[in-house]
Structure formats: structure tokens, C-alpha cells
Write a structure and sequence with these properties.
This protein is of the alpha/beta class. The protein has a domain of about 200 residues: Rossmann fold, CATH 3.40.50. The chain has 9 helices and 12 strands. The strands form 3 sheets. It has a 6-stranded parallel sheet with strand order 2-1-3-4-5-9, sandwiched between helices. Strands 6, 8, 10 and 12 form a 4-stranded mixed sheet that branches. The chain has a two-stranded parallel sheet with strand order 7-11. Helix 4 links the parallel strand 4 and strand 5. Helix 5 packs across helix 9 and helix 7 packs across helix 9. The longest helix is centred in the middle third of the chain and has 20 residues.
């Protein structure tokens, strides 16, 4: 199986590439800017897994034009290339942020898509490009909407690594709002999901939620991180860390993905946090 991966050097890309290669795939790591038509290699590819994006919500708020250009326009250019490059399937990694504020919980794929910020809006526009090229030019696709992922190697701008880094430094533990509830999936479980999405025949044309199906508040994450690290720090809230347009709850209904891919998470939240802590501290 020949596979092209964009964002191969990123947090999710690294374990995904390692998994694909362990499964016997011939993996090409995309080099360059996804917005540059000249950067794309020659096919054929059995699957293209498109991970490259501006994925940090805070950065998308600070630089909305860049987030739109990379996430929406970059995806359109990838689909334009794919329609003439002998590509078997495009797996597009979107985001649960396309749903906006939850009207019901847990969230299934039929939930309305009403993003509340530039990141979710850019991902929803990219989904439209994927579907439009699929319908018009016959490019086979799968759209994956991950909820929160975590694990070793994640950049500090996200909740889990930020908390773990502060604990490792041992000086203070400063947080934002601890009430939002999110659905956390260990990065290796997410990589396995994408590998299945690239090759399971029945997934063609599907939009699939990627998540554990369990909701945990930011406060629970802090408490578990303190437990696995053995730290005695006490969290304090900083009003400057409160985000505009915060979504109170994002928890996944993953029934469709379970049926379509035969996937289920294997790593519990506590075990995943323990692995992330050990990787950071080499403990």
C-alpha cells in the first residue's frame, strides 16, 4: 500500500507514520507547503492522509487569515492535485470544532455544524472542498472529525502538555477555565483510527467522529495529571487564560466509527497521561 501523509512530522503524524510502516505500507512524507501546487509528488497513491493544518485554536484566533489559508485553501489545493494524481482515497482530518456549541451530548455526525471560531470555520470550509471534489471529480474520501487528542510529543499550547510541563517545572500550576468538558483520545489510538479509515472499504464517503465517547473536564485532567506525577502543586486560575467563544462541552458519539471501522480506544485516560508524563520526564 502506497501512502502519502501531510503533516507527517507533527504530533499525530509521527505515530501514524510509524504505525503505517509497521503495517507494511510504503509511506511518503509530504515535503513543503500544502498551499503550493508544485510541492505535491507524483502518484499513484492508494491513500493520502491529510493532517497538515494550523491546529492550535489560540493561534487561529490570533492569526485567522493564516488558519483559513492553510486549512481551507491548502485542502482545496490538495484535492485539486488528487483529482489528477491517481489517488485511491483521501482521508481528511477535520475537527470537532466544526460543530460549535453542543445542542445535544454526546455529539453524532448528524449534529449541526455551526463553528464558533476561525479554526472550526476553516475546517468546515475544507470539508466542503473535500466533498465538492468528491462529488464532481470522483475523488474517494473519508472525513474524520477528531475530538481532543493527547499524548507524548504534543506542543505545549494544548491543555495536557501545558499542565504536565508546569508540573515538571515544579514552580506553579496556572490554569484557565477548568469547567469545559472534552473527549480525550490517546494519540496512538487516533493513529490506528486513521490507518483503518485509509483502507476499510466501507468507510468510503463517510464522515466519522474520532473520540473515546467519554467526557472529562479540564479540572479532571489537572487532578489526574497531579496523580500520575505525584505532584503536590495546587492549581490557580489566571483570567488571562480564559478563551473567547469557549465551547462548554464536546463529547463524541462514536457509534458510527465503531460500526464502520471496527475501532475502539484501547488506552485509558489515566494510562495515557502516565505515558505522556513518562515520555516528558523520561521516568
Amino acid at each position: 500500500m502506497r501512502v502519502l501523509v501531510t503533516g507527517a512530522s507533527g504530533f499525530l503524524g509521527r505515530p501514524l507514520v510509524a504505525l503505517l510502516e509497521s503495517e507494511g505500507a510504503q509511506v511518503t512524507r509530504f515535503q513543503g507547503d500544502v498551499r503550493d501546487p508544485a510541492a505535491y509528488p507524483q502518484g499513484p497513491f492508494d491513500a493520502v492522509l491529510h493532517l497538515a493544518a494550523i491546529s492550535n485554536v489560540a493561534r487561529s484566533i490570533a492569526e485567522p487569515a493564516l488558519a483559513w489559508d492553510v486549512n481551507a485553501n491548502g485542502t482545496q489545493r490538495l484535492m485539486e492535485w488528487a483529482r489528477g494524481a491517481d489517488v485511491g482515497r483521501v482521508v481528511f482530518v477535520s475537527s470537532a470544532q466544526v460543530y460549535g456549541k453542543a445542542r445535544v451530548s454526546p455529539i453524532s455526525e448528524s449534529h449541526p455544524t455551526l463553528p464558533t471560531g476561525p479554526y472550526g470555520a476553516s475546517k468546515l470550509a475544507a470539508e466542503a472542498a473535500v466533498r465538492g471534489y468528491g462529488a464532481t471529480y470522483g475523488v474517494e474520501f473519508v472525513i474524520v472529525r477528531p475530538f481532543n487528542m493527547y499524548g507524548p510529543g504534543q506542543e505545549r499550547g494544548f491543555l495536557v502538555p501545558d499542565v504536565l510541563h508546569q508540573i515538571a517545572e515544579g514552580k506553579s500550576l496556572v490554569t484557565g477555565d477548568l469547567t469545559p468538558v472534552r473527549d480525550f483520545t490517546f494519540v496512538e489510538d487516533a493513529a490506528r483510527f486513521l490507518s483503518l479509515a485509509a483502507r476499510v472499504p466501507g468507510a468510503a464517503g463517510a464522515t466519522l467522529n474520532l473520540g473515546s465517547g467519554e467526557g472529562h473536564s479540564a479540572g479532571e485532567i489537572v487532578d489526574l495529571a497531579l496523580r500520575v506525577s505525584g505532584s503536590k502543586l495546587r492549581p490557580t486560575q489566571d483570567p488571562a487564560r480564559l478563551r473567547p467563544a469557549e465551547i462548554p462541552e464536546l463529547v463524541v458519539d462514536n457509534a458510527l466509527a465503531r460500526r464502520t471501522l471496527g475501532w475502539a480506544p484501547r488506552v485509558t485516560l489515566e494510562e495515557g497521561l502516565r505515558r505522556a508524563w513518562r515520555a516528558m520526564t523520561k521516568a
